[in-house]
Amino acid sequence: MHQTFDAALEMNLLHANQRGADHNRAHFDEWGITCVNLMSSPGAGKTQLLESTLEGLKNLKIAVIEGDMTTELDADRLRQHGVPVIAINTGRSCHLDSKMVAGGLHQLQHDYDPASLDLVVVENVGNLVCPAEFEVGEHIKVALLSVTEGEDKPLKYPVMFREADCLLITKTDLTPYLDVNLDQIEANIRQINPNVTIFRVSAKTGDGLESWLEWLQQTMTHQANRLQLTV
Prior knowledge:
GO terms for molecular function: GTP binding; GTPase activity; nickel cation binding; zinc ion binding. The protein has nine helices and seven strands. It is an alpha/beta fold. It has one domain (about 30-230): P-loop containing nucleotide triphosphate hydrolases (Rossmann fold, 3-Layer(aba) Sandwich). It has a seven-stranded parallel sheet, with helices on both faces. Strand 2 (about 60-70), helix 3 (about 75-80) and strand 3 form a beta-alpha-beta unit. Helix 1 (about 5-30) packs parallel to helix 4 (about 100-110).
């Protein structure tokens, strides 16, 4: 069966993006950096979680590649934590792709010493669909789902939840004020991705953050060990 033009074009775009992602990942591996792709819908709390993560991992050297369609509002928030932040405005694009992140890496390499870093977090554009389909060179995909979004989102937007290595249910401090069942949210997530690691967190109160930070550091250690075995 012949592919339609649109299907062939989409496949070519994804293949080209994947080559770029592999190239970016090779740079991260060369520098000994773990890269996390942080994804969610708008307003799920990525930036606030990232702020808490930066404060909780002051023992590590972390840089951020911050993606937004316009403005550097979130980038400016993160710069207040004293870490390198590269801002990328995507314009009308609803996600970061590997080429955009490659540009951010070139700037990071120009302005800083990447080999001195332990972790790069790519905060993707707020969107529940596209970011999961376009790899950027990450080693770990982390998705956020706010309790304010309801229980059905994993079933309605399965790609991101299927691809995630870790899923953070955020803003749990709001649960008493909402008609939402956290156990049902987890059940719906596991229906899509049975093996995903799930944490319930509140960046506002700090609940659950210790477990998230411990998981992240352990995953970084596994990544570093993997690199040593391949050298």
